[in-house]
Amino acid sequence: MILFICKRLLGAIPSIFGLSIITFLLVQLIPGNPVLTYLRVSNIQASEETVQAIRIEMGLDQPLVTQYIQWLTNILQFDFGTSFISKRSVLDEIMLHFIPTMQLTSVAFILIIVSSIPLGVTSALHKGKWFDRLTQLFAFSSVSLPTFWLGFLLMYLFSVQLNLLPVLGKGSVAHFVLPATTLALGYIGTYLRLIRAGTIEVLKEPFVLYAQARGLKERTIVWRHILKKAASPTLTGLGMSFGNMLGGTFIVENIFAWPGMGKLLVESIVNQDYPMIQACVLLLGMAFVLINLIVDIFCGLLDPRIRLAGDR
Known about the structure:
By secondary structure, the protein is mainly α. About 80% of the residues lie in helices and about 0% in strands. The longest helix is centred in the middle third of the chain and has 36 residues, at about 90-125.
């Protein structure tokens, strides 16, 4: 198992290194001049001497490779620079917004698990019956709804018409309900169908019949044996979905004015805050890689076949 984990950790290093290169070059391709942007937001007159001095101060007079090495060196020392807009440390600014994004994503992720697993398993056990048809209709509908449309629909229904839930911002537990539901609903339909299909396949295997012949309770067979075997592809998908939700909350956070990373990144792009853009993209990408690494290791613990295949 230790060898399996070490291989996964070593395999993540090239991904993170490649991500850093893409992030650095991506910002270089953004239209505009970072020096002029900095002078504009700082209310400094853009004379030729000032532009040249700021350019040297930022290291933009150096070759591209030298700029990348210097930028990467600063990143490894947790120095992401200073925001053009707030004049604060980029890392401090990101931490203020990363925690709300993690909170929202975690609540949505828990909602996906507690909804899709019971519904998917129950639907598989009652295949072809009214409950199965109802859950399939729900799954199809939830996947088909656009996130921005669903967010405004829930806002209009539960906040404007019924006045049950708050609309904007982050405060009490009630503020989580609408954005977390909007973020999770499409994934619930996807994993409901995935778990249903996996459970139906496992139900056909001989060990289920043997377990029934031994007199094991149906609840024990389903939740201890069938679900464990059907969960491996679902876990991999859930790990990728958590990373996608973490980096894809832009629409939800902007609809509900949630003070998270998505809202921060959109504002940074609009204001051409280059250090903030680089840091947001890099950290969200690293979070995606690390979450998938954790899921791979967990799947190896859950299913020995994956671990043995990795060792070979």
